[in-house]
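Quick one:
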Amino acid sequence: ETQPDGSVTGIDADFCRAVAAAVLGDAGAVNFVALTASERFTAVQTGDVDVLMRNTTWTQSRDSSVGMDFGPTTYYDGQQLMARVSDGFTGSSSVADIDGSVVCTNVGTTTEKNIAEAALLAGAEITLLGFETSDEVYETFIAGGCDITTTDGSALVGRKVKQQPADQEWVIFPATPISKEPLGPTYGQNDSAWADAVNWTVYAMIIMDEYGVTSANVDATCATAEAEVARLCGGDGELQTAMGLSADAFHQVIKQVGSYGEVYDRNLNPVGLYREGSANAGWLDGGLIYSPPAR
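Output:
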């Protein structure tokens, strides 16, 4: 999200900063480029951007014919719908209940295809309105130009917190998402060195989180670390230099940006999204966030 002063905030932005810290040694060395859903893949293919972060769902077509490669999933999401309580919708509503509704979403996205398929399977007839930008979607929804908006559940939660008018109550449903939306870094195909740098930045953040290493204690931890943490800090047996990075690349990632848990909590806890009990908990806590070993 771009702030009035021009700064960019959010979990996606922090993962971009983490990659910059690993590759360039400076988390601030990022040029953020605003793209619509229909522009994003072309921007990667032409080299205008190096990586798309988190807001692109990993699908078979994108992983093949579209020409993208995908890194580790940083957020396991799922598509849901949001509507006004005054229109008769509740948290228990289902896709079948949207029969006759006008639904707003972004063009050129998996959400557009998912809601069309879900409505067909549920026997619901809908009118689908597509917009290039998310701001257009929510402006139309707030103004009453559509009955329902749909996208990834995490995005709906954020919009509800920040944009729900005082005279309206919005509700998100169904409780079980209508799709799987694994989100993470996306980049062009056939560049394994760049892919390794991006991927292992994320993996290092996950591993350090498992060990309780944070931006607050990483210097002290790295000074006495052993085994896997020592290697990620740049100590004996480190593999960062073999990847073309500095030995302390991942030390800098944690110091300048934080571990996976820090980045998640800092950005998503304020809007009511928590790791506990979700797919985004660590594997030791029953979730799906998991990294290969650093050895």
